[in-house]
From TrEMBL:
Protein name in the entry: ABC transporter domain-containing protein
Chain segments carrying region Disordered: 1-20, 255-321
Keywords noted in UniProt: ATP-binding, Nucleotide-binding, Transport
Top-level division of the source organism's lineage: Bacteria
Amino acid sequence: MSTPASTPGTERAEPSGTAARARGLTKAYGAGETAVLALDAVDVDIARRRFTAVMGPSGSGKSTLMHTLAGLDSVSAGQVWLGDTEITGLKERELTRLRRDRVGFMFQSFNLIPTLSARENITLPMDIAGRRPDPEWLEHVIDTLGLRDRLRHRPAQLSGGQQQRVACARALAARPELIFADEPTGNLDSRAGLEVLGFLREAVDALGQTVVMVTHDPGAAAHSDVVLFLADGRIVDEMAAPTAEAVLERMKRFDTSQGTARATGTAPAAAPGNPGHDSVRTDPGARGASPGPAPGATAPPPAPPAPEAHAAPPDAEPRED
Ligand SMILES: Nc1ncnc2c1ncn2[C@@H]1O[C@H](COP(=O)(O)OP(=O)(O)OP(=O)(O)O)[C@@H](O)[C@H]1O
């Protein structure tokens, strides 16, 4: 993995500001007595060129937040902007184009096409869109991710970590304004998971990208610049410069407070004891969270949406670098 002195084309990106933001973002599923308020008037700013992790108990709204910020899901109320573009209210066709041109996705299942080479998988979204990749940028991404000598391989000829790197390169190739990663390490062993987190970190530090990652893993969240904590559809806390220990301690507090409300069917509402914490910025200077007592665990990760239906075959032949 190389850290270049200068990154091709990063001058295009703003050095600061927000890559995405939401105001009063509300998402309800269903109606009447069975209605679920997945997001409850969330205000959030995703800082540009930062690595933001999203954590919270199962059912707290992490995936819904990611999907609505990415324009993958409609909102019930509120507004969402990607850069300066308000995406709430866009027609499906416009949304599809915006996602294609400005957003990159990484899912837990790599969603690589088994019959295509690594290079073809990387450029597939642009090929579909009829766009030519910026050759300098593409080569830079390939080198940064250490995929140069794997480009002709098909997914089955790559290890899990290498496949996820290809998925990472695919998300980066079009130089999106924002990369959303949903449990990107969920299916990887710890070594490969660390590698992918390192590359996401590199994407931010060396390539100037913006990453939002949903994770259940405090160790994964520790690679981010800031962690947003959700509970009952609201952002109730944030932690800058997170460590795995501090994130774990913060997560434990959910198991004795907000986390149990959802599990027992209590109507979603602002978390008691956390008023006013649903509006946050993801600036690096944000306040840290204090640790708390009580043991606990988080739930298994969600099934990711699959824009392309082909996951890597389970019998993939592992190969080392
Ligand atoms: N399509 C849907 N229809 C009905 N309810 C839904 C739907 N999608 C999500 N929900 C509900 O919205 C709430 C938030 O779900 P979401 O998947 O965003 O949570 P999460 O924090 O990502 O959970 P997990 O960590 O378990 O994946 C949950 O109560 C969930 O049951």
